[in-house]
Specification:
The protein is of the alpha+beta class and 221 residues long. The protein has a domain of 82 residues: SH3 type barrels (Roll), CATH 2.30.30. The chain has six helices and five strands; from the N terminus they run H-H-H-H-E-E-H-E-E-E-H. Strands 4-3-2-1-5 form a five-stranded antiparallel beta sheet, with helices on one face. Strand 3 and strand 4 form a beta hairpin. Helix 1 crosses helix 2. The radius of gyration is 26 Å and the shape is flat. The termini are far apart.
Length: 221
């Protein structure tokens, strides 16, 4: 076999191996990272919650081996029980007493009320938060950024504005949990058809994930 042909076969083999390796990396990396994060989260919960479980109710007391996820299950049970108690009259009364005590503490009061409002807004199914993805010119004319409508503005800010404005959250890349709150005139934004999940993926991936290649969520009528 001529040397040129051997070199060509060798290059082809190396190229194929490189392609197979990169393909395997693309397939395995998301799965491996997801599993790692899930296990790390479970381990974090277990290390902080298991010490709080009475030995009589801890399955690991009776088993010769550790049982991952016990802390997570116990935390879920405790939060569900807390929610059940908070839904009745006695629970609401006790919570109101606790809130009155917190409201008497200057710094703690501000932190508590802010966190409470954020969690109620995010978790509540009746809120329309982050249901629309928009484009707006930022940080200057001619440059566009993806943002999310966080709500209609009907307060003092709207009263002092000449145009109708909406509350817009402009996320940063690749961490969409940080960003800027902007009050933008409705006429200056462009509404997109992509879902908030698709918009978040676009931001997190720094544009590597094209929303046009993702399935579009159908509107429920």
């Amino acid at each position: 076999m001529p040397d040129q042909q051997k070199i060509k076969i060798k290059k082809t083999f190396i190229q194929k191996m490189k392609t197979y390796f990169l393909t395997g990396l693309v397939v395995a990396s998301p799965v491996g990272i997801t599993i790692y994060i899930a296990l790390a989260f479970i381990d974090l919960i277990d290390r902080n919650i298991i010490p709080l479980i009475p030995a009589a109710y801890n399955p690991e007391t009776y088993l010769p081996f550790p049982l991952p996820g016990i802390g997570l299950v116990f935390l879920f049970f405790m939060l569900t029980t807390l929610g059940f108690l908070a839904a009745n009259f006695l629970g609401r009364y006790l919570i109101s007493i606790g809130e009155r005590m917190l409201n008497r503490m200057p710094i703690v009061r501000s932190v508590y009320n802010t966190l409470k409002q954020i969690f109620e807004t995010v978790i509540s199914e009746n809120k329309g938060s982050f249901q629309k993805v928009v484009l707006l010119e930022y940080p200057r004319k001619g440059l566009w950024a993806i943002a999310f409508i966080s709500g209609e503005n009907t307060g003092e800010i709207q009263e002092k504005m000449a145009d109708d404005v909406v509350n817009v959250f402009l996320p940063t890349t690749p961490n969409p949990t940080s960003g800027f709150l902007l009050f933008v005139p409705k006429k200056d934004i462009i509404y997109l058809d992509m879902t908030p999940d698709q918009g978040a993926k676009y931001v997190i991936s720094a544009g590597l994930v094209d929303p046009s290649n993702l399935p579009v969520k159908e509107d429920k009528k």
